[in-house]
Amino acid sequence: xxxxxxxxxxxxxxxxxxxxxxxxxxxxxxxxxxxxxxxxxxxxxxxxxxxxxxxxxxxxxxxxxxxxxxxxxxxxxxxxxxxxxxxxxxxxxxxxxxxxxxxxxxxxxxxxxxxxxxxxxxxxxxxxxxxxxxxxxxxxxxxxxxxxxxxxxxxxxxxxxxxxxxxxxxxxxxxxxxxxxxxxxxxxxxxxxxxxxxxxxxxxxxxxxxxxxxxxxxxxxxxxxxxxxxxxxxxxxxxxxxxxxxxxxxxxxxxxxxxxxxxxxxxxxxxxxxxxxxxxxxxxxxxxxxxxxxxxxxxxxxxxxxxxxxxxxxxxxxxxxxxxxxxxxxxxxxxxxxxxxxxxxxxxxxxxxxxxxxxxxxxxxxxxxxxxxxxxxxxxxxxxxxxxxxxxxxxxxxxxxxxxxxxxxxxxxxxxxxxxxxxxxxxxxxxxxx
Length: 434
Fold this sequence. Notes:
Number of domains: 3
CATH topology of the largest domain: Nucleotidyltransferase, domain 5
CATH architecture of the largest domain: 2-Layer Sandwich
Protein name: FHA domain-containing protein
Helix content: 25-40%
Oligomer: single chain
Number of strands: 29
Structural class: alpha+beta
């Protein structure tokens, strides 16, 4: 199976073969007397068996004793080993695997991790800090931040980029992880069901499990459409995107405070793909870049020889060669009303120096510089700003709300169609060169 990466993040450990993700497995375990469920199987039962759940074992990786009657569960390291074994059982592992790890793992945790890896089916040939790897091939010269969402916390890593991208410091923001967002949204949806249907989803473990299973879909739909009709046990409750944003704000504020503390005036904040699933996550900082989901795999593939170890004694790599200064062009989305310069659709960014046309017909949604017979909208540039004009009779959404009148586009604005997943994003692209 060649070369690949194991990205260790308790939101979901991910296995890549080359740059293709082949498996994601959340860092959750359900511990019973005779068996241990790990990963997705555990997540699907976590709310039904709350007293048997452990989702701390990666964050607190250690030989700290656990109270359990299961002989395979003496400490957190046992659960980590079970998780790696589960991953190996459910996918074809690459022949050679690079380990991408959080920058705040202690020396003791790294040593313990390598000991566990040596007992597992994983053939690890390198160990690298995930943040500096992700930034190394993208960032301009300067001091930048990489912000990673974990299960119980957010990790903000400061990386100095010159000839090399070097990890400077990694600071965790407690109570700001994926689980904290889920719990905050659960209160919103629960209140909505109680107020609108007189139904409490938390009245039973089964209903609570269904609530948590469905929430990611509901939140995603609200982010696209501005609101969502959540259905549970034949009951329906309406929740707005604004409600979810308000619930997320206290958590986001803690992360923003750390970003402001570590950033410099020209820092770009590189955020992992998981922040795109958080209402308000794209507004974490003034100058922000959303990393692709396979960023770590791309980075490792391009710097394989730098990270590869010729011996079995792996050392943590926290400095990697940076991209040449004259080759860096990074998309910057601003939280403020920054003027957009390009329109991004899928993996293609179109400069809007000439008119661009939004096209919607027979379930085909796209953007093109070639005038179609019946454009849904036209984007033109005037005085340094992009203007969106919707054609008569067309129903388009801007940031989840239907629009009819012309509007100026700012970086981060999303153009879409109701009940359709694809969106066109207005972005600002800055070029850095020597």
